[in-house]
């Protein structure tokens, strides 16, 4: 038996309490999962509000069975007409559709998505095709790609905070080399997501210049032949977010 693995790792911009990146996972009505990654312009509370709006609407439409490309177009129209073209939000949707046995990658973003196919030696492909973010230009359309939902594939998506890490200091993140190195030592999707995020923060000298998010969807072998589903989430909270004793 095989399983879908989802790993997400994210971090706020340095000295910012609110992230303009939001990542959601939703179960598809016909079977499978979708990951929704939104990166609103700017950072802080206003950007968080916008990315929350985009992901909540996207999740609602996906749960109703709306096609991924139609979700992107509807969200663009909403932002463009109700915000007057004054705000933008990058959006990436990765869907593993177990009914149609395909994986759909839909993007309104300039950040590439990476596909890893493992057949002994991992083959890493950068899925090209950049599209404008939602909300700015009329008639904006997403880029999309459909691939078979095969064993031992991995799809890696991220926001531009990771892609651009280190550029202010003229340092670049070689993602293909980093992914290859991590996979060569048998790192899990969760390990890989943390490794990429850690390297991006290191290139920004420990002070991320932008919000950073990475999401990985993979199809891996299941050790036990059972139908149980599990999810584990870790979210840090500051002490001032906790109720006082007494």
UniProtKB/TrEMBL annotation:
InterPro entries: PPM-type-like_dom_sf, PPM-type_phosphatase-like_dom, Ptase_RsbX. Residues 3-219 form the PPM-type phosphatase domain. Gene3D superfamilies: PPM-type phosphatase domain. It holds the Pfam family SpoIIE. This is Protein serine/threonine phosphatase.
């Amino acid at each position: 038996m095989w399983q879908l693995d989802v790993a997400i790792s994210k971090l706020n911009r340095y000295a910012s309490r609110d992230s303009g990146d939001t990542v959601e996972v939703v179960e598809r009505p016909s079977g499978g999962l979708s990951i929704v990654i939104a990166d609103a312009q700017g950072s802080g509370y206003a950007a968080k509000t916008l990315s929350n709006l985009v992901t909540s609407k996207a999740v609602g439409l996906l749960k109703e069975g709306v096609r991924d490309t139609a979700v992107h177009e509807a969200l663009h129209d909403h932002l463009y007409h109700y915000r007057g073209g004054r705000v933008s939000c990058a959006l990436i949707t990765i869907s593993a559709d177990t009914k149609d046995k395909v994986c759909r990658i839909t993007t309104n973003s300039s950040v590439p998505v990476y596909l890893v196919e493992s057949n002994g030696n991992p083959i890493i492909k950068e899925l090209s095709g950049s599209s404008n973010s939602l909300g700015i230009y009329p008639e904006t359309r997403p880029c999309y790609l459909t691939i078979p939902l095969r064993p031992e594939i991995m799809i890696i998506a991220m926001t531009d905070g990771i892609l651009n890490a280190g550029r202010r200091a003229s340092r670049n993140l070689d993602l293909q080399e980093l992914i290859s190195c991590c996979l060569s030592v048998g790192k899990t999707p969760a390990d890989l997501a943390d490794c990429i995020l850690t390297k991006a923060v290191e290139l920004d000298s420990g002070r991320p210049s932008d919000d950073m998010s990475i999401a990985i969807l993979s199809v891996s072998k299941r050790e036990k032949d059972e139908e149980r589903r599990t999810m584990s989430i870790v979210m840090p909270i500051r002490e001032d977010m906790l109720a006082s004793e007494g």
